[in-house]
Amino acid sequence: MSWPGAVPAWVWWLIVLALVAGGQQYRVVVAQGETSTARGELADYSLQVAERDRRAAAQARTEEHRRQAVTDEADRKADERYANLEGRVVAAESRSVGLRGEIERLRASHRATCDTIAAQQRQAGASAVVVLGGLLEESDRMAGDLAKALERSRIAGLACEAVADGIRRGGE
Questions:
Q1: Most C-beta atoms within 10 A of its C-beta, which of 32, 73, 74, 117?
Q2: Domain extents in the chain
Q3: pTM for the whole thing?
């Protein structure tokens, strides 16, 4: 009998079972090593993504602050222009009041000088002066209102352009 035949069959089965179990154990150890490596890589990737997200959020906040600063500066300049406009409107209104006073003085002067003229001629001349004076007053008032509205819309447009230009400059 040879030595393999001297070993009982159940021992051979036990040896095969031990070899299979050992092979399986080796596969488990290798898989655990690969899993641990993959977990480490996943943790590194998660850190990289978190850092990228943090940087992107910080960059977005910085851009938002820059845009807000541009808008605030444009608002401040527009407020200054509006205040300047109000001062000019008050000055123009003052001159307009002076002009209306001069028109009234001319009307009174005209009435005084026309006392010597015939009643019919005086009425025709006085009515023309009154009509022209009224038209001049009304056109002066309208011109002031239109100038004020035009200047307000110009200031608003300039402020809007300043905000848009400031935001565009930051994106370049």
A1: 74
A2: 11-171
A3: 0.52
